[in-house]
Amino acid sequence: MRIFHRIPELRAHLARFDRPAFVPTMGNLHAGHLALVQQARPLGDTTVASIFVNRLQFLPHEDFDSYPRTFETDCAQLEAAGCEVLFAPSEPELYPQPQRYKVQPPAELADMLEGQFRPGFFTGVCTVVMKLFQIVFGQSKGGGHAVFGQKDYQQWLVLRQMVQQFALPVTVHGAPTERAPDGLALSSRNAYLSAAERAEAVQLNRALRSLAQALADEKWDGAGGAGDLAAQEQQAVAQLNARGWQTDYLTVRRCSDLQPPAATELAGCRTGQDSQAGQLLALGAARLGRTRLIDNWVF
Ligand code: PAF
């Protein structure tokens, strides 16, 4: 695997390829990231990953400074997964001056859910991904492919729409969430969990699955859908909080635009219409001790 820390050297190397397949990361890699690399490999004529902990997407009180930086292990894992090129810029390399030009995603998609609890998060993500795309794909003749994990479902949707709106020659792919055997979504932030918290952490996924199941159950009345849904969501939040979590949100949305589903869509999910399968998802974010976890469940 070739490792580049500087933009000009990376560009010179990538100029030989037509269609890179790219996996942007913030490092501290786990099996979920490696699955992204596996998915990327057949898509392009070279496989590129990046490691960059992007200050722009952290709020001042968040974990930018303590975010785990495990460069040596990350390199070994990427190499073993068949990644051919790693771009690992320093902060001055990617942001030589304060980044004043930013990509601001639309409020109706980016100011809710994660964006409500982490204001500015998606501006930071879109700005760094736009910049990384310019660097990685800027010299490719046939555009390229980028793969993102769907654990961060809203991020994936925001980035897919960014690529469409700016007509970037990049196809954005989503990869299913990798899970531990008990169902916990793999995440770099799982490393923050104590043993007791790790045992408890799967409850976020269970809460999402129970919420999805409750909607599919018989007591559901499509006519009163929105009110019923809010009550189910509140109950799910109360149950998780009673276990010691601090929940930011547990909610059911449409997969296509993350808006609340219409009563007819909820009714369709209850009656198990095939056309409704996979149209809705339950999403959640909650804090366990000092660790904030997110997950989602499509149904
Ligand atoms: O999902 C992540 O790891 C980050 O948000 C990303 C896409 C690499 C941008 O910094």
TrEMBL record:
Catalytic reaction list: (R)-pantoate + beta-alanine + ATP = (R)-pantothenate + AMP + diphosphate + H(+)
Residues at which (R)-pantoate binds: 57, 155
Keywords for this protein: ATP-binding, Cytoplasm, Ligase, Nucleotide-binding, Pantothenate biosynthesis
Residues annotated as catalytic: 33
GO cellular component terms, semicolon-separated: cytosol
Pathway as given in its UniProt record: Cofactor biosynthesis; (R)-pantothenate biosynthesis; (R)-pantothenate from (R)-pantoate and beta-alanine: step 1/1
Annotated beta-alanine binding sites: 57
EC number: 6.3.2.1
Subcellular location: Cytoplasm
Keyword Ligase in annotation: yes
Ligand binding (ATP): 26-33, 149-152, 186-189
Residue runs in coiled coils: none
Gene Ontology process terms (BP): pantothenate biosynthetic process
Pfam families: Pantoate_ligase (PF02569)
GO function term, MF aspect, one: ATP binding
SUPFAM superfamilies: Nucleotidylyl transferase (SSF52374)
NCBIfam families: panC (TIGR00018)
Further comment: The reaction proceeds by a bi uni uni bi ping pong mechanism.
Subunit details: Homodimer.
HAMAP family (UniProt xref): PanC
Family the entry assigns: Belongs to the pantothenate synthetase family.
Role noted for this protein: Catalyzes the condensation of pantoate with beta-alanine in an ATP-dependent reaction via a pantoyl-adenylate intermediate.
Name assigned to this protein: Pantothenate synthetase
The species this protein was found in: Serpentinimonas raichei
